[in-house]
Design brief:
The complex is a heterodimer. Chain A folds into two domains: 4-230, P-loop containing nucleotide triphosphate hydrolases (Rossmann fold), CATH 3.40.50; 241-345, Beta Barrel (OB fold (Dihydrolipoamide Acetyltransferase, E2P)). Chain A is 24% helix and 36% strand. Chain A contains eight helices and 21 strands. Chain A has a six-stranded mixed sheet, with helices on both faces. In chain A, strands 13-12-11-14-20-21 form a six-stranded antiparallel sheet. A five-stranded antiparallel sheet of chain A has the order 15-19-16-17-18, with no helix packed on it. Chain B contains twelve helices and two strands; from the N terminus they run H-E-E-H-H-H-H-H-H-H-H-H-H-H. Chain B has helices spanning 2-32, 52-58, 61-93, 99-107, 114-125, 131-140, 150-178, 182-190, 195-223, 227-232, 244-252, 258-290, and strands spanning 35-36, 47-48. The chains are: A alpha+beta, B mainly alpha. Chain B: Pfam families: BPD_transp_1.
Chain lengths: 346, 291
């Protein structure tokens, strides 16, 4: 178990900076998720923590110990790769036991630890098989067991579920969370799937363009986004945005009447589909563009000027296309962003 | 039924050529090997001799010596080529200036006909003319005369073959190395394995198919080397570099001992097959053990 500290860590390839200096303090036993679209630098960050990628600048500390230039094997980290990275010529048992074998653990001791790790992830009946004889989910569990067997200080998981089918992904997600909680290890998890991030994380680090956009608990990220990127990235459907002008404490945009606001100039109003409520006297109005029933509720897409917004309505609600609907959003659920910089106006 | 007829018809030209160029000569050589047939003998007609030719082989010191030399030569060149080829492949895969030029230049020997390679090396090594004897004398005070010293002749033949064929090994290993999956190697680094361990446990396992193919090709080529050596040393001094191919040639052509030569060819073929089979079993068995 380790506390991981990133101090001004930066990565560049020649003149190209792929990761701007980031500072991060990951507590012992924390489940931290690095979230972001592809190419945002999340995998690079993880690979630098693992020691697979050299750190261009900055310091990396494990429990206060400087490991910036340490070899991967001297960091006591375990990693699970997206494609599992199993050794195809070794049995499941040999795969799991490989870290122990290179650490010269005695055979009997090794066997016991392999069996213990296999039991944790329900692989006991498959120990003699080869990776090619296993399903995707089983391979994933082998990779997990191989990471477990070393009792590492830090667990690194690089998009571990992205090769699994949707159903299995949900099941494995719960297993990983359960495992982390039981073992109490520090886990750093990279994903581009915001649902995965929200469900798993103690804290989410949202990255974009090689820079941290926001760090916070899933609730903070969801309810209190720091900028337009975060607001638009988190949530399904994404947050609704309406660009307009603010003057004298009032926000004006097509379909919006008399909405109090903070700030002035070009602002973007953001609100979530579930925070909008249909109301005869609502301050927002738009025409029905499309109706999308999902079973548990119905999403109504409204055209408001050049924007389209999603409203979550009752599952039985079926408005006519083209009809005008009025709705309202509570004041504290209306978030304003500076249209130019994208930053939240508070 | 119609389908299978069409299939056979389509295969027929290939099968025909294979039968003409492969099976018929083999059967012919097989049958000749049971005859005593020497056009210079008192009775130049083939006479049935049973397995006499094969019996003769077992006690033929010249043949056995030639076989031994061939094996020694093969082991030397194939092992050296694998090791040198691997390091060259590693080097040529690095990012460096003029990489393309180095890669091209290093494959040039492959494009030269063996007979021309032999001729070139002969020019290099002829005493009084070639630069090698001159500088060997000048720098190391060694009299380098291929036609006099068997060890020198053998070593030169080995070096010539390494020079000629290492690029092939480099090329195939480069193909194998560039297809190595990245993740298992990184995983092994994180698992705490040293670079040597990773090479031994992981890289070799991934390279095995390429290695096996390369070794087979080089092994079979080395076992039947004729023209380069014939051009460079003529099998000499004495019979010190007379490898099996050369030996068979001498028996069949200048001596016209067709039956005996056929038997030799068959035994050589048999030994080659057995060696390859052993190698295959050894290498795939190695895999089974790690299973």
């Amino acid at each position: 178990m380790s506390r991981v500290t990133l101090q001004g860590i930066r990565k560049s390839y020649g003149a190209v900076t792929v990761l701007k200096p980031i500072d991060l303090d990951i507590a012992d036993g924390e489940f931290l998720v690095l979230l972001g679209p592809s190419g945002c630098g999340k995998s690079t960050t993880m690979r630098m923590i693992a020691g697979l990628e050299a750190i261009t600048e900055g310091k990396l500390l494990f429990d206060g110990r400087d490991v910036t230039a340490a070899h991967p094997r001297d960091r006591n980290v375990a990693m699970v790769f997206q494609n599992y990275a199993l050794y195809p010529h070794m049995t499941v048992a040999d795969n799991i036991g490989y870290p122990l074998k290179v650490a010269k653990v005695a055979k009997a001791e090794r066997q016991a630890q392999i069996e213990a790790a296999a039991k944790t992830v329900d692989l006991t009946p498959y120990l003699a098989r080869f990776p090619r004889d296993l399903s995707g989910g089983q391979r994933q569990r082998v990779a997990l067991a191989r990471a477990l067997v070393r009792s590492p200080g830090v667990f690194l998981l690089d998009e571990p579920l992205s090769n699994l089918d949707a159903k299995l992904r949900v099941a494995m997600r719960a297993e990983i969370k359960h495992l982390q909680r039981n073992l109490g290890v520090t886990m750093i998890y990279v994903t581009h799937d915001q649902i995965e991030a929200m469900t798993l994380a103690d804290r989410v680090v949202l990255l974009s363009d090689g820079a941290i956009q926001q760090v916070g608990t899933p609730d903070e990220i969801y309810d209190d986004p720091a900028n337009l990127f975060v607001a638009g990235f988190i949530g399904s459907p994404p947050m609704n945005f309406l660009a307009g002008q603010a003057k004298g404490g009032r926000f004006a945009a097509p379909g919006v009447d008399d909405l109090p606001c903070i700030g002035a100039g070009s602002l973007t109003l953001g609100f979530r589909a579930e925070d909008a409520a249909l109301a005869e006297a609502g301050r927002f109005s738009g025409t029905v563009y499309e109706v999308e029933p999902t079973g548990e509720s119905t999403y109504v897409v409204l055209q408001m000027g050049i924007h389209r917004v999603n409203l979550r309505c009752d599952k039985k609600f079926r408005p006519a296309l083209g009809a005008t609907l009025r709705f309202d959003v509570a004041g504290r659920q209306c978030l304003f962003f500076d249209s130019a910089s994208g930053q939240r106006v508070r | 039924m119609r389908n299978s007829t069409t299939g056979w018809l389509l295969l027929a030209p290939t099968l025909f050529i294979l039968v003409i160029t492969g099976l018929l000569p083999f059967v012919y050589v097989l049958s000749v090997s049971f005859f005593d047939w020497n056009t210079f003998a008192q009775n130049p007609d083939p006479q049935y001799a049973g397995v006499n030719n094969f019996r003769r082989l077992v006690f033929d010191a010249a043949f056995l010596k030639s076989l031994w030399l061939t094996l020694k030569f093969t082991v030397f060149v194939v092992l050296s080529q694998l090791v040198i080829g691997f390091f060259l492949a590693k080097m040529l895969m690095r990012d460096m200036p003029l990489k393309g030029l180095f890669r091209t230049v290093h494959t040039l020997p492959l494009m030269i006909a063996p007979i021309a390679v032999g001729a070139t090396w002969r020019l290099l090594t002829v005493p009084g003319l070639g630069p090698i004897p001159h500088w060997m004398k000048e720098w190391f005070d060694i009299s380098y005369i291929l036609s006099r010293f068997p060890d020198q002749a053998f070593a030169t033949v080995v070096i010539m073959d390494i020079w000629h064929w290492t690029p092939l090994v480099t090329l195939t290993l480069m193909a194998g190395l560039s297809n190595l999956p990245e993740e298992p190697l990184e995983q092994a680094r994180i698992d705490g394995a040293s670079e040597w361990r990773i090479f031994w446990d992981i890289t070799l396992a991934f390279l095995k198919p390429v290695l096996l193919t390369t070794i087979f090709i080089r092994l079979m080529d080395a076992l039947r080397t004729v023209d380069e050596v014939w051009m460079l040393t003529g099998g000499g001094p004495g019979a010190e570099t007379r490898f099996i191919g050369l030996h068979i040639w001498r028996v069949v052509f200048p001596k016209t001992d067709y039956g005996y030569g056929s038997a030799m060819s068959l035994i050589t073929l048999y030994l080659t097959i057995v060696m390859c089979w052993f190698l295959y079993v050894a290498m795939t068995g190695m895999k089974d053990k790690t299973r």
